[in-house]
Amino acid sequence: xxxxxxxxxxxxDIDGMRFFGPGRLELLSLIDESGSIxxxxxxxxxxxxxxxxxxxxxxxxxxxxxxxxRKGGDKxxxxxxxxxxxxxxxxxxxxxxxLNSIVEKNGDILNLV
Amino acid sequence: xxxxxxxxxxxxDIDGMRFFGPGRLELLSLIDESGSIxxxxxxxxxxxxxxxxxxxxxxxxxxxxxxxxRKGGDKxxxxxxxxxxxxxxxxxxxxxxxLNSIVEKNGDILNLV
Lengths: 113, 113
What we know:
Strand content of chain A: 15-25%
Low-confidence stretches of chain A: none
Order of helices and strands of chain A: EEHHHEEH
CATH topology of chain A: Arc Repressor Mutant, subunit A
CATH architecture of chain A: Orthogonal Bundle
Distance between the termini of chain A: 12 Å
Oligomer: homodimer
Radius of gyration of chain A: 17 Å
Helix content of chain A: 40-55%
Number of strands of chain A: 4
């Protein structure tokens, strides 16, 4: 029995260049959990440099930064999501839920393959 | 003013490998119009070999072929869509219309970027 599935992906582009999508959602979520770009990069099997470049891009190319350096305190620094970063995760997640629900309702296309 | 947009893409995978998506939809549609794999390949700026390999994959990896050789007659051969091929174009098109309509309704995510 063959495994057949419908895959849906969604990205936000700015000036024709990818700005946000599944990879950055994962990175943002992992930074939110760990408070650390290094830990998030490691969890994704990605170099720190690549993760940092993504964070820098997310912080500079949009209207407002998605991430911000956390000030010292008990945990001694780290990185956290801005209000915009949180809203991005929430709205992108909602959008993906809706898209996946459309895909589920149209599963009969798989009967053709 | 930056150009901001939401991009949605959809593919059908068989056993974890792409079987149908935007590129093959275009190829299938162009073969349907022209009756020719060579003309369709040229229109897409793709080598004949690559187009032929895609056609072969679409004809062998699913349940039924999506394309079939047209028998001689006035037009002297060529390639045409099978009933399954036509249904695939129609249903994939419908699915993409629905996905794009969800994206349009959720355009407010672009206010974040």
